[in-house]
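Risk mitigation, structural track. In case the binding assays with phosphoenolpyruvate fail to produce interpretable data, a predicted complex structure has been prepared as a fallback.
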Amino acid sequence: MTETTGRPVADPALWPAPLAADPVDATVTVPGSKSVTNRALVLASLAAEPGWLRRPLRSRDTLLMASALRTMGVEIEETASSSTAPVSGTAGSGEVWRVIPAGLHGPATVDVGNAGTVMRFLPPVATLADGPVRFDGDPRSYERPLHGVIDALRALGARVDDDRRGALPLTVHGAGSLEGGAVEIDASSSSQFVSALLLSGARFNQGVEVRHVGGRLPSMPHIRMTVEMLRAAGARVDTPEDGGEADVWRVTPGALLGRDVVVEPDLSNAQPFLAAALVTGGRVTVPDWPRYTTQAGDALRDILTAMGGSCELDEHGLTCTGSGRVRGVDIDLGEVGELTPGIAAVAALADGESVLRGVAHLRLHETDRLAALAQEINGLGGDVTETEDGLRIRPRPLHAGVFHTYDDHRLATAGAVLGLAVDGVRVENIATTGKTLPDFPELWHGMLGTSAASPAGARA
Ligand SMILES: O=C(O)C1=C[C@@H](OP(=O)(O)O)[C@@H](O)[C@H](O)C1
Ligand SMILES: C=C(OP(=O)(O)O)C(=O)O
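Fallback model:
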């Protein structure tokens, strides 16, 4: 692309990933968790009384969730300060959303975008509406698995019209209530099937009993998050982990409490920043890292340590420090699949081979993440091969090039991590980070002490 003067100009769709001139040394405050925010919105909407979310994530996925619940009749008031909330939270300043539940209504139309949490958590909610709720979304949402939720809802008494059988778009014909009861699903393609049924289960006449039958269930921490948030809202939940049958979860019918939820920082979105410490031999602190959490991102402490860094959790938050050396790992990421793109980027810069296992289901995430990572890292000169359930990454010197992102926020942040160490990486559609981390470019430049207008080390 050239101006009329013939001078080359930057393509605005290609973000010049800043090269780290020095080891990073920064504190990065990471916005709220997508997974906590969207569960809290659903649970608050199903509760018997109003509730609050403090420091919710404001991103495409969470705004889609809020707007979907609003179209079904829930009131969500957004305020800038916590002063109106007469409750015990200690979130301090920041945004507060007040959720006022109401009888759920149809007809309504829900745009799920490409948010797994919206497309899976809301059809069960829609069975409680008093009319039809239509679900549609981005083209990719049509390809993401939904059969577990649709088949289960039918088995539990709902009427669902899915022209494409087991996929979006679809209509849930809400009848004001759902019988509920016991159901078997194969959730090996997404833990969100289980979470979806449990989240609404307390509002079904007979509650719900979900039995997973099939291959390995991924992302167990996310199911634990669902269980713990349900319990905090007053639901009785029986799980395999408290002596119940393997792969069976049960939610007893009952009213849910309105809560005052302080949303934790999104630990999976902390990943690129912590990875920056590792690949530049620097140091990054993420404040407010919870001492106890069900978030998958907490596994980063161990993973980044195994890759050559050191991570310390203290009153300042989590600080990860790079040693100047990045080690390859052989690791099963099945429990924490959403961390895979960022780990793959670090692994491509390591001093030895890595094997990332247990993540075959990533082929049906925002994009086919295994194919996309192999393609894009190899496009920069890397040596990545897809295995049956993951990636084999052999580090090689990388070179400048365009890193395509396939509308996947985690591909975009992975490209930024590579750009720290490889001169001339341009990330296509950095704005796609807005799915869960809208201010990513500003946060990234802030961490590096550069500015988007004249980033040191960046090339237009
Ligand atoms: O329930 C959740 O909030 C999530 C569960 C996981 O989904 P899968 O089990 O489909 O991987 C995870 O990857 C996703 O980012 C968020
Ligand atoms: C898989 C992810 O998202 P979703 O909630 O859309 O499934 C993710 O954020 O990595």
